Amino acid sequence: MSRGNSNSRTAAGKGVSFSSNPVLAVKLPVWRSRLLLFFLFAAFFALMTRALYLQGMTTEFLQKQGENRYARTLELSATRGKITDRHGQVLASSVPVKAIWAIPEDVLNAPDAKLRELAGLLEMSEAELRKKLDSDRQFVYLKRQVEQAAADKIVALGIPGIETRKEYKRFYPEGEVMAHVVGFTNVEDKGQEGIELASEKNLAGKTGSRRVIKDRLGRIVEDIESIRPPHDGKDIKLSIDSKIQYIAYTHVKEAVEKFKAKAGAAVVLDVQTGEVLALVNLPTYNPNDRSVLTGAQLRNRVITDTFEPGSTMKPFTIALALETGRVTPETIIQTAPGAMTIGTQTIHDAHKQGTLTVAGVIQKSSNIGTAKIALQMPPQEMWEMFATLGFGQQPNIGFPGAVAGRMRNFKTWKPIEQATMSYGHGLSVSLLQIARSYMIFARKGDLIPLTFQQSTEMPMGTRVISEATAMKMRDMLESVTQPGGTATQARVPGYRVGGKTGTAHKVEAGRYVNKYVSDFVGFAPMSNPRIIVAVMLDEPSGGAYYAGTVAGPVFAAIIANVLRSMNVVPDSSVMNIIPEPSVPEAL
Amino acid sequence: MSARLNIVLGAALVICALTLINSQYQARRLFIELERAQTLSKQYEVEWTQLKLDQSTFGKHARIETVANQELGMVHVTPDRTQYLTAEVVK
Hints:
The complex is a heterodimer.
Chain A: H1 22-25, H2 30-57, H3 59-70, E1 71-76, E2 83-84, E3 90-102, H4 104-108, H5 112-121, H6 126-133, E4 140-146, H7 148-156, E5 162-171, H8 179-182, H9 194-198, H10 200-203, E6 208-214, E7 220-223, E8 236-237, H11 242-258, E9 263-270, E10 276-282, H12 295-298, H13 314-323, E11 332-334, E12 339-342, E13 345-348, E14 355-357, H14 358-364, H15 367-374, H16 379-388, H17 415-422, H18 431-437, H19 439-442, E15 446-447, E16 462-463, H20 467-480, E17 498-508, E18 511-524, E19 531-538, H21 547-565
Parallel strand pairs in A: 2-8
Antiparallel strand pairs in A: 1-6, 2-3, 3-4, 3-5, 6-7, 9-10, 9-19, 11-14, 12-13, 15-16, 17-18, 18-19
Chain B: H1 2-58, H2 61-71, H3 87-90
């Protein structure tokens, strides 16, 4: 025991050597050291298992957590496609704006002066703002679709808890003129009406994403994964010509005001391509500000509403009779004494005409003449003709809410019904349907599908009547606008026009009432038709209601201005028209 | 012999390390530049959309007509005041 001597370092200071230390003399039980050893090993074991657990079993989770600290997924926004007219004029376009949202708890801690300023920038009263913030939720939208400049000012206030989110606002530069064609989107930039809804799939963009590493200051340092690029929505070019649309709109609007009509509508079609050049509805709305909207304003009376067309149907009955050789334009029809009883009911002409030729039946719009011709034909033939023209059939034009109209099966037709249907009562059509059906006269006998998108190729037509019949019908339709016809006011200086008036009593609760729908469908120029125009005025209540005086002048004004804007060469030498009264037509 | 080899290898290692640092730095710098350029292009795109929209707003027919009528005192043409020229007449 060398340590036992007095030079030993340990315990020497106290004068006690290690070996003689009294502590050593205490006899401790062996289990105590063993226990200590056991605890030490147990602790090591615990550490090792933990290490194994972290490294081996939860690696994935931990790595993910680590990545979350520096990697961010950014959403790459995609813009909704533009809608333009056929010349590229923008009709609807999305512009980025900001949604302002808040964490209420944090914002309410801000000084009152700042809140007042915030309320001012949000264009709401302070009380309104406080009401919005008085919520248990963690997330409250304060205002959506705030324009960039205003949003920047709000951010500059530096109020804690105020955040912004990028979103898009849709602008409609043409406003109420185009409202029913283009439609509108909701606050989420989803189409709700019109083309916006019909072409939602093409217009909507697909958002992309990218994963990046951000540094402490929030700058992007590196891309981690490959970028999933955003796909912007496709732009859509409509067949609508904004100039023609504007011309039609102003004239229909003028007429609605002049004749105190409840509503008005017009549609302009291109005879060669079947494109819809204009589609006008009144009353209308401003799609940029839809805070006050009524159902009447939203209604699309050209496509989604039907009405009894009245006499505008007569040309089809006559065309069928000509086509099947039952009559010629010169065949004499006796319409006296101005009333005719079929079964238990009597039909009337507004004015007694006496004997008329078939051409005269169209020119003077005689109900009795048309009914007499119709009753020579089996119901099935008439029904087939009407169905081929698209009446009662679901139109295939890619527009939401397009209606088929109502036409009963020929098996249930009674003679009186066949007679009234021949002059446009007892069936209902949309303005677009009746406008399209006039293609057979404007196009030498064939019918083509309509489209709302600009088309470059000529569509294939289906023949309905022969060219000879179509030409005979054209002459009759032109006579309607000439002296002695029901629509002399539809004449246009410089161009030969043709068309047919229609005035019908409205049906309310299943009964005809003394309210009227006046419509006029026609085309021009007669030498080589380019456009079909259909005009409809609902409940003109200023005294006049005959289509010749109500809808005829609108038709003439639209034709005159549209043909001029399309640079169509005049085909008539009559350059100035002295107004002549129209012959009142039968109801 | 082996000492010299070690020095050479060590120097090579240091050079490689420095180039790596440099290239990483360059990569980040270029990346930021690219990022900035892309942001700018997106900004221009938005601006272009806005300008197209403005063009439509200021060029809409309702506005043109009011300006023509009221500020410039223009009237609509009518066929009786129009001289029509066809191709044959021009020849």
